[in-house]
Amino acid sequence: MEKLTYKQIKEKVGESWALIYNPSYSQKTGKLLRGELSFWNAEREKVENFVLKDKNPEKYFTVLFFGEEVEESLLLNFF
Prior knowledge:
79 residues, alpha+beta, 4-stranded antiparallel sheet, 2 helices, 4 strands
């Protein structure tokens, strides 16, 4: 399986959850640099189920969301 950069993975999966095998991280920032894209879906549960079906304990993986994080907040003013 080919290792893709973070940017390549993001372009491929859009706003979805992605399963990435053999991830490489920056030692300086801790961010994902590259990895082997295995599966992606908009629903996190489907990605988790895909991982559970893979019985190979030798694989290192990460599951990341590649969409925009929405900060949900509510401001209330009482006078």
